[in-house]
Specification:
Radius of gyration: 31 Å
Helix content: 10-25%
Length: 674
């Protein structure tokens, strides 16, 4: 957790004064008992609601309570999970990995397997392995002996976690079905948590209030003679028993056009909002966006990095010869941006800010994502350019909560800079990306602008990914096709193309993708013009022969004019989707195919020309055929402008893709002249 918020630091220090409280176990009977397996579960051979399931979570049960008996405040989570393995495809679910923070303590680990013949085998302590994953996280892993089809595995463990600012997320869904998932929490009235329920409606959600006596070590309270010090007093307070249950949860099935799975899995999240102890004023944890923005602007971790010149002086000195070549401040910045993009390496880590001065990172020529973009903001500050930091959560980090000022949800910073009247997005770390294109993982819908005077959420909009490919086909005497291609690529399509050429200068890595559809492809004279870092489009040119593109049957020639389809197959395969389709950026593609009719043949049959429009201007597809003399033209255009499709619109966008693929597969038919 970052240490940039002084209010949070003071609050957590106060929390650590609490001791001597441990919630009693809920009176209600737990849904699972260690080692007690029902015969019906052992004999079960298939899950009727999903007969394709290789494994099934029978029960996943968690209990969370607070513990102040041994020093700093902590929460304690005990979890008990039982899984049915139907067949060998489900064996992967018997490889258990538990990841926890290295400041936490994991204990009381138990694991056993119940085989279909009624025997049970424990996992020995010597077969439970623990190792550090990195500087912050550890992992406990184990597997089960005597594993066989039809077996049931179960395991149980407890994690003690220091601090109570954020409670563990509970997920009611995974990649296999779940019969019963339940979370119970005991929360004293001192703590006000934001509770966020994600996914479908809970089968059961209840909160029961009870009174308990809690031992609070020391606090100041008003008395008849003024403020008095109270030590080790039992205080009567209310405790709220929460219970959340989900049943018969289907397996989560991932497919194209989505952010991280954690955004869509049904679950519960908890964030501490405020604390109020007996006879004390409430202490807010989540104050408001204005205070968070103000703290950031004066933080050594963030704002001071790009506003105090001493922290980036060496960068300015090094880039001075480059910037002197620019006439305006905008030109100076763009030249410095290009130089930094070539000099600095992204170290593979995302971050909002920097714990070291920018000068130190510049000397190392390597930095995290936030530090790189703070360098750009420092240049803007020096040149007097209008510029703003934008904090966001990358697509693989998860969606953001706009209502509550939760700073920990952000893991990346980009820069918005006014260049000649246009506010462009800059995201240092890849010299192949042109101006105005952040990393693809940065395209998570919105970002937060931490202006101390006017903090606000802003949309992250990017220009569309554009491509135009023009083919010319000529038939040879034996029915083969000679062709030429000239393609123009802009935006993210240009970045992707250029990176492929960087990995293979001959372009064979690109051509190899086409071989899947055309094994007889023979390509010549591949040429790429331009660089993706320029604002000008990339131009790709080559020629070649297709020995198997046309099929001759009797007096007829059949040929598919679509050599490079927009989609080889429908990226959306589920019958129904319970989470939105999330396309990162607009897509505009067109393919122009000009065909010289084979000598001695006439056009017999063509696909029907069509125009398809998505509702509300969300996109369109056109397939147009023109027959003029000896030449035939086939024009295909596709635009996708709407980027988010909620589950109720899933079939609309899926059918749109299906129609495109159907048209791409239709053939032209030529018949021999009589």
């Amino acid at each position: 957790m970052y240490t940039y918020n002084s209010l949070l630091n003071r609050t957590l220090m106060f929390l650590f004064l609490l001791t001597a409280f441990s919630s009693p176990v809920q009176a209600q009977r737990p849904p699972i008992k260690w080692g007690k397996v029902a015969t019906s579960d052992l004999t079960m051979t298939v899950y009727e609601q999903d007969t394709s399931a290789a494994a099934l979570v029978l029960t996943d049960y968690g209990v969370l309570k607070f513990d102040f008996t041994r020093g700093p405040a902590k929460h304690v989570m005990t979890r008990h999970t039982r899984i049915k393995i139907f067949d060998r495809k489900g064996y992967d679910h018997s490889d258990i990995s538990i990841i926890y923070h290295n400041s936490d303590e994991i204990k009381n680990i138990k694991a056993q397997i119940h085989t279909p013949d009624g025997n049970s085998f424990d996992v020995k302590k010597g077969d439970i392995f623990e190792k550090p994953l990195n500087d912050n996280w550890n992992q406990v892993s184990f597997t089960f002996p005597q594993l066989t089809e039809g077996a049931i595995i179960e395991y149980k463990y407890t994690v003690d976690s220091r601090g109570i600012f954020t409670l563990p997320t509970w997920q009611f869904q995974t990649d296999i079905p779940i019969l019963h998932s339940e979370l119970r929490l005991s929360i004293p009235e001192w703590y006000d948590y934001i509770i966020i329920n994600q996914g479908r409606k809970l089968n059961k959600s209840s909160i029961v209030e009870r009174t308990d006596n809690l031992l609070v070590p020391t606090y100041n309270a008003p008395g008849s003679t003024g403020i008095i010090d109270v030590s080790n007093q039992m205080v009567s307070t209310q405790v709220f028993e929460h219970q959340y249950i989900m049943k018969d949860m289907p397996a989560f099935k991932a497919e194209a056009f989505m952010t991280t799975e954690d955004d869509y899995l049904a679950g519960m999240k908890f964030q501490l909002r405020s604390i109020k102890f007996p006879k004390q004023a409430a202490q807010p944890i989540l104050s408001d966006w204005y205070i968070v923005a103000k703290d950031l602007s004066t933080s050594e971790y963030f704002g001071l990095q790009y506003t105090q010149r001493r922290r980036y002086k060496k960068i300015l000195e090094s880039l001075a010869p480059v910037m002197e070549q620019g006439d305006s401040n905008e030109e100076k910045f763009l030249l410095a941006f290009q130089q930094l993009n070539n000099e600095m390496q992204w170290n593979g880590y995302y971050s909002v800010g920097s714990h070291q001065n920018l000068n130190e990172h510049y000397e190392k020529k390597s930095a995290n994502s936030g530090t790189l973009n703070l360098m750009l903001l420092a240049l803007c500050n020096e040149l007097g350019l209008e510029a703003y930091p934008l904090l966001l959560s990358t697509r693989d980090n998860g969606k953001m909560v706009e209502i509550y000022p939760i700073l920990e949800q952000f893991n990346h910073t980009i820069a918005a800079v006014n260049i000649n009247g246009n506010l462009l997005l800059f995201d240092l770390g890849n010299p192949n990306r042109p101006l105005g294109l952040p990393r693809k993982v940065s395209l998570n819908g919105k970002a937060w602008l931490p202006s101390p005077n006017n903090p606000q959420w802003v949309d992250i909009n990017t220009p569309p990914s554009k491509s135009t490919e023009m083919f010319n086909y000529t038939f040879t005497a034996d029915g083969e096709i000679n062709f030429t291609l000239k393609g123009k690529y802009e935006g993210y399509s240009a970045v992707s193309l250029f990176e492929k050429f960087q990995n293979n200068a001959s372009g064979s890595s690109i051509i190899k993708e086409w071989y899947k559809s055309f094994p007889g492809l023979d390509v010549k004279d591949v040429k790429l013009t331009g660089t993706s870092s320029d604002s000008e489009p990339l131009i790709l040119e080559f020629s070649g022969d297709l020995t198997d593109a046309a099929q001759t049957i009797g007096d007829f020639i059949y040929v598919n004019p679509c050599m490079n389809p927009f989609f080889p197959e429908n990226p959306l395969k589920l019958e129904e989707r319970s989470y939105p389709v999330n396309i990162p950026y607009p897509i505009h593609q067109q393919s122009l195919v000009f065909i010289t009719k084979p000598e001695g043949y006439q056009l017999e049959e063509t696909p029907e020309s069509i125009r398809i429009n998505l509702p509300n201007g969300g996109g369109k597809f056109e397939y147009l055929i023109n027959d003029v003399g000896t030449q035939l033209s086939v024009i295909m255009k596709m635009e996708i402008n709407q980027l988010i499709y909620p589950p109720e619109e899933y079939k609309t966008i899926k059918n749109f893709f299906s129609l495109i693929i159907e048209k791409q597969n239709e053939q032209l038919v030529f018949s021999k002249k009589q």
